[in-house]
User: Which sequence fits this backbone?
């Protein structure tokens, strides 16, 4: 065998192995099905008037390859939506019953159930990973997603109000830290599969998956995470023993910034803006979609916050807890970033906010 032929065979072998490795890389996906480091979405509320042609399935989208919001041409219930594309990897992994892939789906509002259990955290999300990498989708949508064998769909209960979420691609070496955060979360897991290959490094998720945990749960825990392409994140997780507003008592003070918060402001269940501590928390009261389009916080089930304009530390956080006296006793958390494109996108949505009395 000549050296040239041997070199050609080695090249083909290398490319074949590289292709197999690339195919195993689970990641957040764009609407075109391309792998992205992260994305965030904002599902718009359904307008409550007969003239509106909006369905409650339209959404804004921003990912690591773009610089500002774009209005999706897909509807959120479409398999080619950003969530449909990303979760397709979950359905394929579940169908193959592979021992090299793990997943975990949690929501305090389980699909096809009208009950919400206060026994678990007010948390909603999906994790899918192998020993190369995976994604963590954090969102605010009740009854979502369906169990894997039913395929992708979007619940009718998620149409009326605004919803938001974020997907981040992580290398496998980040999952040990995520494992500890989920212990604090105490999520209501309704479908999971964690093969034995992952159980040496990941202690808590297999226990949570089995419906038990022998570990002592801290009141709160802050983790530093890094996406597959190096974007840094902070993740705040509080348990139900941390009996306080996560925004005012912890996040604003930890991030050293005044926060504008957008959470579901149900009547008689909201907390007022808080200026009693060094770093203040203000309630956003209206969201601006365009020059002539806006909606009230009462129509918004999303949970996010940003640093107030003009402050030095410009943070954006997306998560699953409301500013409500009833949620001080619920576990949950927020993923935070100083990415300037994300900050500018969310800052541009703020129409006005409530000052302190």
Assistant:
């Amino acid at each position: 065998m000549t050296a040239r032929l041997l070199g050609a065979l080695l090249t083909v072998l290398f490319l074949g192995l590289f292709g197999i490795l690339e195919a195993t890389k689970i990641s957040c996906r764009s609407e075109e099905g391309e792998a992205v480091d992260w994305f965030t979405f904002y599902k718009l509320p359904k307008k409550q008037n007969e003239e509106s042609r909006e369905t409650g399935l339209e959404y804004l989208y921003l990912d690591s390859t773009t610089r500002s919001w774009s209005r999706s041409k897909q509807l959120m219930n479409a398999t080619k939506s950003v969530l449909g594309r990303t979760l397709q990897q979950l359905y394929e992994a579940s169908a193959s019953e592979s021992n090299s892939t793990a997943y975990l789906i949690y929501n305090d509002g389980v699909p096809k159930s009208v009950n919400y259990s206060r026994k678990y955290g007010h948390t909603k999300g999906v994790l899918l990973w192998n020993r190369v990498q995976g994604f963590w989708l954090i969102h605010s949508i009740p009854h979502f997603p369906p169990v894997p064998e039913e395929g992708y769909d979007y619940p009718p209960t998620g149409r009326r109000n605004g919803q938001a979420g974020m997907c981040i691609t992580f290398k496998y070496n980040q999952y040990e830290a995520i494992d500890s955060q989920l212990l604090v979360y105490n999520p209501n897991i309704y479908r999971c599969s964690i093969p034995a290959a992952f159980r040496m490094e990941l202690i808590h998720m297999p226990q949570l998956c089995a419906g038990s945990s022998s570990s002592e749960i801290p009141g709160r825990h802050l983790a530093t995470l890094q996406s597959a392409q190096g974007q840094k994140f902070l993740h705040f997780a509080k348990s139900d023993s941390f009996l306080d507003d996560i925004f005012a008592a912890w996040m604003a003070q930890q991030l050293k910034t005044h926060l504008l918060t957008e959470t579901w402001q149900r009547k008689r269940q909201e907390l007022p803006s808080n200026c009693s501590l060094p770093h203040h928390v203000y309630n956003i009261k209206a969201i601006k979609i365009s020059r002539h389009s806006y909606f009230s916080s009462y129509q918004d089930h999303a949970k996010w916050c940003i640093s107030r304009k003009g402050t030095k530390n410009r943070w954006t956080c997306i998560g699953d807890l409301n500013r409500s006296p009833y949620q001080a006793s619920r576990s949950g958390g927020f993923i935070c970033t100083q990415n300037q494109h994300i900050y500018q996108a969310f800052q541009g949505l703020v129409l006005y906010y409530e000052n302190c009395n």
Remarks:
- DSSP finds six helices and 19 strands in the chain.
- The chain has one domain: 26-354.
- Residues 5-23 have pLDDT under 50 and may be disordered.
